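Just curious. Invent one:
>
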Amino acid sequence: MNTHSIFPGTFHGDELTCLFYSNLMKPEVVPGGREEKAINTMCSLWTEFAASGNPSPLWPKYTAEDGAYLNIGEDLVPSKNFRSKELKVWRDIFNLINNVPTNKL
């Protein structure tokens, strides 16, 4: 939704502009475009989650072992281990700073 920023992608709270239209926050949505498709997809996921507790049959159950998640992009794609290499760097730094033995995690 963030079409007017030097930072690509969406940000925390971007969905509010799509759900609660106002003159202060008005997204520029092209009918039939990517933004409209994203809005409709997210609204469907939220609605289904509110109704059933499961946003989509495609949404995998998360476990720490496989880090399952649903990649919400042009399509909904069940995926695993989101940015695992980058997360390992941060875990290693945390462990080093906090003197956590690696065999304890």
